[in-house]
Amino acid sequence: MGTTGLARAITVAVVEDHGVVIDGIRSWIERDPGRRVRMVGSGPDLDEVLAGPGADADVLLVDLNLRGTLIVDRIGELTAAGRKVVVFSAHSEPANVLAVIDAGAEFLDKDESREHCVETIVAVAGSRPYVTPTSAGAMLGDSRSQRPALSEQERTALLLWFQGMTKSSVGARMGISEATVKQYIDRARAKYAAVGRRASTKDALLARAIHDGLIRADEVNGYQSRAWRP
Q1: Nearest-5° angle of CA 220, CA 200, CA 197?
Q2: How does pLDDT run across 168-222, given as a tens digit for each residue?
Q3: Do 140 and 227 meet the contact criterion of CB atoms below 8 Å apart?
Q4: What kind and span of H or E run contains 41?
């Protein structure tokens, strides 16, 4: 069993229309000492990859610009269908990054890919927080609205969940039901959505909570980001 806690390698399908980029991704994956990720397919057409090798892949690694067209709208469709998605693109303007995060995916700048590609895939596959410098920078500069207010119970539930506990374990620790824990988490997401700052994924919710001072980075074991260094 590898460091991901999985009995097998994480599978990833790559949607990219430049062969040299696919070759680069493959080399980064193959150089990972833990061999935690395995590429199961690639291609330039999203629908063809989804119908073929990407149908059962744990993670989709998708270029935001395919054949000259930005596919931001497709990202929300994928996450709504339950797919785990990492968008990687040179189009790292804050508006694009925030749109991807709001859609429930992680954003990886192509300039960051060599250093962060495998770690981002592993984190997204395990629903663990991993915020790249580009994502963090976009969220830090997000001035769309104010910080939402969380109750102490909501904050406690989020913190324990961010520390790696299951919702059931959080409930046991707090003396509440798992359903109530889920309600607290959903309520926190709803509060962010209400002020125009959606946090559909666990890593996005954590990054926003740290940015807003609701959670301290040092309270979260194993939190991975370069954005919160002094």
Answers
A1: 95
A2: 999 999 998 888 898 889 888 888 877 777 787 887 888 888 877 788 878 886 5
A3: yes
A4: strand 37-43
Residue 226: how many CB atoms within 10 A of its CB? 12
Helix (H, G, I), strand (E, B) or coil at 19: helix
Coil, strand or helix: which one is 42?
strand
- Helical (H) or strand (E) element with 154: helix 152-162
What pTM was estimated for this model as a whole?
Answer: 0.67
Is the torsion defined by CA of 41, 64, 87, 51 positive or negative? negative
How big is the CA angle at 93 (ends 149 and 109), to the nearest 5 degrees?
95
Task: Give residue-wise pLDDT tens across range 72-105.
Answer: 889 888 887 888 899 999 998 888 888 887 777 8
How far is the C-alpha of 153 from the C-alpha of 151, rounded, in Å? 5
DSSP type of residue 48: H
For tokens 């194993």, name the residue. Answer: 222
How far is 27 from 130, CA to CA, in rounded Å? Answer: 21
Give the start-end residues of each E strand in 71-175.
84-89, 106-109, 130-131
Q: Report how far residue 224's alpha carbon sits from residue 205's, in angstroms, rounded to the nearest whole number.
A: 14
151 secondary structure, DSSP code: -
Residues in a beta bridge with 106? 86
Residue type, 126: G
- What's the angle, vertex CA 163, arms to CA 157 and CA 166, rounded to 5? 65
146 Cβ contact partners less than 8 Å away, ≥ 6 residues apart = 195
Residue 205, CB-side half-sphere exposure with 13 Å CA sphere: 24
